[in-house]
Each structure stands twice: as structure tokens, then as C-alpha cells.
Amino acid sequence: MSGSDKFEQIIAILQEINGKLDRLLPQERSNNGNDSSLFESLDVMTLLSLPDHLRTTATTLVELQSATANDVAKMTHKERAVESNYLNQLSRMGHVNKYRKGRKVYFSISEESGN
Q1: What is the C-alpha separation between 4 and 11, in angstroms, rounded?
Q2: How many C-beta atoms surround the C-beta of residue 82 within 10 A?
Q3: Which DSSP letter does residue 110 get?
Q4: Would you call 9 helix, strand, or coil by DSSP?
Q5: CATH number at residue 71
């Protein structure tokens, strides 16, 4: 593979990442009507530092705003127990809030995780 082929591959990957970020930002801003979105609490550098499996769970939770492990699992097409484990990892890392409503455990993006 030549240098220009590698460069083109890197550009394609960066464009894909940019497209995914563009889809997240406008949706969140339209949900709360201002520029201080939940996405800002889980900044890009934090997302990029996460392993792929946790990044997928975190970005899904950003879209849902507040959800159970089952809700996240439906969107990611993974088992509920797997997503519960990932969400609990994110909670221990301080990126996700965990709270109970009745018998269900909900998760939401932590407002101070990006600070």
C-alpha cells in the first residue's frame, strides 16, 4: 500500500467519524433548543479515548438521553446483560449517572463528565 493510499484511507476514516459526530450534535441541540447539549458533557476526546464497545453504548445513551440497559440493548442489538455491564462501567468511570425509578434502573449522561 503506497503512502497516498494510506492517506486516502485515513481521510475516509476521519470523514466517517465527522459524519457520526455531525449526526449526534444537531439532534441533541434540537432536543433542548440551545448549544449546551448533553453531548458537550461527554466531549469528543473522552469518546475517542473509550474502547469501541463503551463508545457505542455512550453514544446510544446520548441519543436516548435517559434509558434502561434494555432500551440501549434494543438499539445496539446486544444482550441486555452486556449493555448493563457497559453502562455500569461508564457509571464507575463517572461518565454516566445511574438512578432507580421504581424497580427499573436508568442511566443518563453525567453533566460533569466532560469537565
Answers
A1: 10
A2: 15
A3: -
A4: helix
A5: 1.10.10.10
- CA-CA distance, 88 to 12, in Å (whole number)? 33
**Percent over 70 (pLDDT), the chain:** 75
For residue 115, tell me if it sits in a domain.
no
Q: In terms of residue numbers, what domain contains 43?
A: 3-109
Global pTM?
0.61
What is the 3 state secondary structure string of 24-88?
HHHHHHHHHCCCCCHHHHCCHHHHHHCCHHHHHHHHHHHHHCEECHHHHHHHHCCCHHHHHHHHH
Q: Mean pLDDT highest for which of 27-31, 46-50, 54-58, 111-115?
A: 54-58
pLDDT in tens, 63-85: 888 999 999 999 999 999 999 99
Rounded to 10 deg, the angle between the 52-64 and 3-32 helix axes is 30
